[in-house]
Amino acid sequence: xxxxxxxxxxxxxxxxxxxxxxxxxRLLAWNDALAASLALPETWRDAAAQLFSGNAWPEGARPxxxxxxxxxxxxxxxxxxxxxxxxxxxxxxxxxxxxxxxLKGAGPTAFSRRGDGRAAIGPVLxxxxxxxxxxxxxxxxxxxxxxxxxxxxxxxxxILPGAVLTRVAASxxxxxxxxxxxxxxxxxxxxxxxxxxxxxxxxxxxxAPDRYLALLDAVSxxxxxxxxxWMHAGFIHGVMNTDNVAISGETLDxxxxxxxxxxxxxxxxxxxxxxGRYAYGNQPPIAQWNLAxxxxxxxxxxxxxxxxxxxxxxxxxxxxxxxxxxxxxxxLRRKLGLATAHDDDEALGREFLAALEAVAADYTLSFRALxxxxxxxxxxxxxxxxxxAWRARWQARLAGEGRGVDEVRAGLRAANPALIPRNHLxxxxxxxxxxxxxxPFEAMLAAxxxxxxxxxxxxxxxxxxxxxxxxxxxxxxx
Length: 478
Ligand code: AMP
Ligand code: MG
Description:
This protein has 478 residues and is an alpha+beta fold. Among the domains are: 2-172, no CATH class; 176-333, no CATH class. 42% of the residues lie in helices and 13% in strands. The protein has helices at residues 32-37, 43-46, 48-51, 121-136, 175-183, 187-201, 211-233, 283-298, 306-335, 345-358, 363-373, 385-401, 405-415, 423-434, 439-448, 456-459, and strands at 2-3, 14-16, 26-30, 64-66, 70-72, 75-77, 85-92, 98-104, 119-120, 143-155, 159-169, 235-236, 258-259. A hairpin with a 2-residue loop joins strand 5 and strand 6. Helix 7 packs antiparallel against helix 8 (283-298), helix 10 packs antiparallel against helix 12 and helix 14 (423-434) packs antiparallel against helix 15. The protein is globular and about 65 Å long. The two termini are 31 Å apart. It binds adenosine monophosphate (AMP) and magnesium ion. Magnesium ion binds at residues 243-244, 253.
């Protein structure tokens, strides 16, 4: 069943939008597991090419484009909005879950400015593949329900086949949504938005003495957990603009994102991130910066006003560092196979990372190799004096916990994926798909859905790039 609680907040929030029909829709990918988990009508699958290209709408849909603003690379843009996305509504699953179902690339809206409202097949399948991989890695993310080729061309630097992605999200409220109303001085709308978000995502703060301050802290915790999970997976979002930060705490907007191959904290892939603002190691402070922008929007709602309100907000924003650190340390211990907490765990983890960085070792495979390095030959780990010394310390630390090798190994394998979507293999799969061959995309999708397995499906996609295969830049592809 569709509901439209967000669109009903008012016409300032969402503008009616009509998907523009396409010439020859053809289903490229459909997410059976997601459809089943949301109990979507089975008839949707058969009609998916029509329904999820915008040529027809599911019953009960009310297509709208959402308003939002955002800081893009530090510069505030007061009006962005859904320029190439059209929300069909909020799907209410029988288990009580409420998700937005949104078409991305379904034609122009009131927010398109000079854009065409369209998307090309490469970025659409990229989001499908990467969001599924993130979900399988256990990282909060928007999902992908369908990818439909339009049979039409989109003009970018080159002429590309067009496609529409159907995205499923806990909601599409962003930090930039709050900024849109705050920048217009519409405090009443900021409050309506905050109340909507509390009811929808953070009902636990309802009874807090200062619920809007509590909301800020809840968002802070969700962002801290999210970015810690990104860091542990070696994920670089690439465009952490405030319009791409979902209030729900899901990963939103798969533009130029990429996974690390070799470990380096300053790694940047995005072609448009010239100064490394969104470099791998910069993600935690940027998340905090984005949170400060949210805090500014919420200031008028806090119980204490003036300087005291600012001090309250500052304390919550500063508290992000502690939330992040504890989320990161928890994840680190899991990745190192530790069941208890010691003061020097952080140092142990940082020394491991430093040993990887020193020789540009592969991030994913090195952590995965820990399961083998517990007792036997440390194949897969760099054989440097620093790493050998580290391994001895780590083994001693584990021995102090007194658990059996099999138990520790199982924990390590559950925390350290064998497989991430390797950039060079993603590019190859997308190039084949754009040329009409979906097989590599489908094989890779099947493999990344079980990233902690180590079977033949995974092994086909596990190898890091060789020198000539290395992807150095990724593109927004809008
Ligand atoms: P993004 O880079 O996806 O975060 O998008 C930033 C802004 O540009 C958003 O307001 C998008 O809706 C808008 N935008 C991106 N691509 C297009 C397009 N092809 N047509 C219209 N608007 C677009
Ligand atoms: Mg965006």
